Amino acid sequence: MIRKLYALCGTDRTRPFSPHVWKTKLSLMHKGLDFDVAPVGFTQIPRIEQGATKIVPLLRDGDRLVSDSFDIALHLEATYPERPPLFGGEGGKAAARFVEGWSQMTLHPMIGRIAIMDIHDRLDPVDRAYFRQSREQRFGKPLEAVAEAGQADIETFSAKLEPLRHMLKFQPFLGGDGPLFSDYIVFGALQWARIVSRQCLLADGDLVTAWFERCLDLHDGFGRSVTAA
Amino acid sequence: MIRKLYALCGTDRTRPFSPHVWKTKLSLMHKGLDFDVAPVGFTQIPRIEQGATKIVPLLRDGDRLVSDSFDIALHLEATYPERPPLFGGEGGKAAARFVEGWSQMTLHPMIGRIAIMDIHDRLDPVDRAYFRQSREQRFGKPLEAVAEAGQADIETFSAKLEPLRHMLKFQPFLGGDGPLFSDYIVFGALQWARIVSRQCLLADGDLVTAWFERCLDLHDGFGRSVTAA
């Protein structure tokens, strides 16, 4: 059986950028599970698998369909317990929700603003229209005004990584000695930035940069299969 | 054997406020372990147990002396594995370092600025002098100027709790269904604020407020043994 992963794409299908899909790809690699990728644009999502989902990643795993990167990780951990753990026990599973909260409420909004025009410009025309309309509704202003606000985020981004730096003084990964799903959560956000934007958000010599490079090396350098923008 | 916990105190020994000591007290309660508290002022710390530590909490547990709230939690988990877990496995232990990073790099600096004069005013005269000198050196400005900067922190504090709110949509504690050391880490910071400052940082109806109240209820309401300022 080959698993099928529906994954967001822009015009260039060789440069998948969705942070959530990166989390799931690394989760599948971590478990050593094969999968085929089915790239979809924003406006195709409601039509896949008979309207099974409004979001990607969506994973077809045999007769199971699971969406949302966290739910997919839970599904993989429950279904393949004999393979390397993604959470490292119940405490790790619970704490991963906090890591998700931190990544999505702190890093994602900043990267979303910093890279908003880059993301827009990488989409197919039909998806560009959807993206502009939905994001302008969410932010209450034109994309270009959001991008302008993003200039201030560039200055403050590094300071937001202090919790990671503190952790990295004690251990090489959020998962401890090796990576767990929590690492993939934060990696997904920074990989998204790396692929869509030329804005350098990680400085040389930063503990976070060294951790991110370690994550890029994982699973035979899978994260490097897409080059930086 | 009675354990001895050296704990920071101000002039009023019935109102211990150190966030780190609160983490350790709740860790000991969580494990169901008895302990006596030995209150010490800032300037007494270098003299306890023949100069064994520069920081409190310091726990004497039989012939072991352990300082630092995280190291004490690790010690308790390793020494009393048959009692309720503080980390919930290796993944939880690793992630707790990130929670510590978030709490100490995000919440602590804000609370430290907001409550700096409250803390100062609650100390013995000799400790006030030490506190002013060491904090003015750290901040590079008079305590009163730090307190003024803290006014801006009051406005932005609630937004900093978004990662917790995201997590609390899925589960009642950082530890999942019940509390783990990660909960005590964040609780310690907010309990510190609750005890030293009259500034209300948590709003009614907030998911974080409900979680904090649950934490205050733990272990027969141990957190409520000191009233709010």
TrEMBL record, chains A, B:
This is Beta-aryl ether-cleaving protein. CDD domains: GST_C_etherase_LigE (cd03202), GST_N_etherase_LigE (cd03038). It comes from Sinorhizobium alkalisoli. The lineage of its organism: Bacteria, Pseudomonadati, Pseudomonadota, Alphaproteobacteria, Hyphomicrobiales. Residues 16-84 form the GST N-terminal domain. InterPro entries: Glutathione-S-Trfase_C_sf, Glutathione_S-Trfase_N, GST_UstS-like_C, Thioredoxin-like_sf. Residues 96-198 form the Glutathione S-transferase UstS-like C-terminal domain. Gene3D superfamilies: 1.20.1050.10, Glutaredoxin. Coiled coil: none annotated. Pfam families: GST_C_7 (PF22041), GST_N_3 (PF13417).
